[in-house]
Amino acid sequence: MKYGNLPLSWSFFGYQEVKIISNKIYILINQVIDRSYILCILFSLFLYSLTAQSFFEEVAQQSGIDYTYSTVNYLGGGAAFFDYDNDGDEDIWVAGGVKQDVFFENDGNGNFTEIGAQIGLDAANGNVTSGVITGDLDNDGFRDVMTIPHIGHHPLLFRNNGNGTFSEISAEAGIGLDEYKAQSHAAAMADVNLDGYLDIYLATYIDNINSIYDQSGAVVGFDHDCFKDFLFINNGDWTFTESSAQYAINNEGCALAVTFTDYDGDADADIMVANDFGEWIIPNVLYQNQFPESHYSDVSQASNADPAVYGMGIAIGDYDQDLDLDYYITNLGRNVLIEYQADGIFEDKTDQRGIEDTFMSGDSLLASGWGTAFVDVDNDQDLDLFVCNGFIPSALFIDNHEYNQNRLFLNDGNPQGLGYSFSEIASGSDLADGGRGRGYAYSDYDNDGDLDFLVVNINHHTMGDPIEKVQLYRNELENDNNWLQLKLEGTINNKDAFGSTVKIVVGNHSWLHDYNGGFGSFASQHSSIAHFGLGQASQVDSLVISWPGGNKSYHTNIPANQKVKITEDGDLTTTNNLSSSPTNFRMDVYPNPFSDQVKVAFDLQKGSQINIAVFDALGKKVETLKNAYLHRGAHSIYWTPSVQHKTTAWYVVVLKSEHYLISQRVFYQ
């Protein structure tokens, strides 16, 4: 293996940074009337260019996180941010590799204490893990956890007992079986069949290594055998049924990342898989959910969503604010941005946006990208992009640099000319660490209104010495931009509301957020709380939430700089001890459960055309109860299901007016 050299300390003054500075100078000079101030502006801008690159500070050990992931091989592991005890701050679960996973409890002030053994993580002793995902699998209001298995182990399922402890139940749940032992680095949760419970997709990796050699014995390609992926359908009783073949998603590519995502906007959970060795085995895969059929269709080639790369991580975001979702896939070499087009086809826009991240330090050695995310780091209303880079030994024809610096690409927010473009700003800061990064997750763990980063390394170098530490980067942003954070809660759908989408409108800007649970980064899970930078706007003009299955709710004039929880029944409350602000559009369906007849009661604040309909558990319309103009005031209507319709466990009553849509699930007994 050929190794690169450590970049010189002055390398951050290279071409790319000079170009960035020059662009900023050009903008400022055109705003300066008195040319005598130009030299002063240049000097000030030079100082600014240094400080602008340094608003993340590495604070892991001073925050109580002193931990090393113990890797089996060079693939490494990940972590997850989530609030395990519902105390309003997000905690951290870190995979352990060949040693026990650890859990860091947040004290609410951004300090962490490792409490894994006392909350039940020691049940995983002896199990090799690469990553972790979380979700409320039984809709009891507490996040449960599944570990991602590494080399000959099955996943472990931890039930959150709601009292600050976890119980390991994978065997009873039907997940901890020998037949599900596989090497994996990726998993995700979503409600595939829209029955109200989260299902689990486990993407798997190499089973047997088969390399292709030339006459001299050098590796020139790959023909590995990979495990098939698994889909665990949640039965709602803490058991799961493996159904990948039934749903036609038993992909046998060598996956390193997976995410559920509603790419086509039809309110069900599609699947994107980033496969390693895509040029040689199976490239990236996009599965379209065919709900209400229990089936997925492979639309990878038809939609041009199948780049043949060494896929390692997936970032999701409407970075260009055209109200559809775009995807960025990390790679050993050139990363790939596929941008959604109006005709449903994706187009490669990587080079136009300046986010290739192909080579390190101007030489021919490749960068190797892993965890990633679109994230608004400066709260200016547009999504930036972080890439966690890290060296991995590889064949000479894809040789990568030993010191892969992390990248932070700042979105210029300018749709003019060729469209949005990015400038790399991590160089010269703590964030540009040249260690061997793998897992990456973001969260506002200190509740200060900006997003912080966690990176799981397998070999972090400082002056050439390995320290192999997990790193926590605190965002020290000092601008006066505003923000809003949003937590959704399902009542008809899964409690976490994974699979929803949010349209946000701020002034003349609007963009889409995929509330998918924070999945997609290598072996890791971001915070699922939606974070919106608002720039100088003092409020969000409107939020349109599309819940799984297609029901919508609308909320307007939400003040900035707060955390907001919105439940599927229409309530909006702040979660920072401010007074609640319920919507003025109400509906009640009772008795619930019912055995004969239900009453639908609702209030209209003003006259409106309304439509009331009943849907069964599969989303099929059973009956329209009302479709008429009604005057302001209280109204009610009764429904008695016919004999042929008394065959389902529950129904959804949906009331739609000109301005609102509210739905409520009602159970039949």
Can you characterise this structure?
There is one protein chain. The protein is mainly β and 669 residues long. Helix content is 7%, strand content 39%. It is built from 6 helices and 49 strands. The protein has a 4-stranded antiparallel β-sheet, with no helix packed on it. A 4-stranded antiparallel β-sheet has the order 2-3-4-5, with no helix packed on it. A 4-stranded antiparallel β-sheet has the order 6-7-8-9. The radius of gyration is 25 Å and the shape is globular. Mean pLDDT is 86; it is low at 1-52 and 577-584.
Question: Which labels suit this protein?
Answer:
669 residues, mainly beta, 4-stranded antiparallel sheet, globular
Give the secondary structure arrangement, pairings included.
Elements (H helix, E strand, L loop, with lengths): L14 H15 L8 H15 L3 E3 L20 E4 L8 E4 L7 E5 L5 E3 L1 H4 L9 E7 L8 E6 L7 E4 L5 E3 L1 H4 L10 E7 L8 E6 L1 E3 L2 E3 L5 E4 L2 E2 L3 E5 L5 E3 L11 E8 L8 E7 L8 E5 L6 E3 L1 H4 L9 E5 L8 E5 L5 E5 L5 E3 L1 H4 L15 E7 L8 E6 L17 E5 L10 E3 L12 E7 L8 E6 L3 E2 L2 E2 L4 E5 L6 E8 L10 E7 L2 E7 L14 E6 L3 E8 L5 E8 L2 E6 L4 E3 L11 E5 L7 E7 L3 E8 L5 E10 L2 E7 L10 E7 L4 E7 L2
Parallel strand pairs: 35-41
Antiparallel strand pairs: 1-34, 2-3, 3-4, 4-5, 6-7, 7-8, 8-9, 10-11, 11-16, 12-15, 13-14, 16-17, 18-19, 19-20, 20-21, 22-23, 23-24, 24-25, 26-27, 27-28, 28-29, 30-31, 31-34, 32-33, 35-38, 36-37, 36-39, 39-40, 41-42, 43-44, 44-47, 45-46, 45-48, 48-49
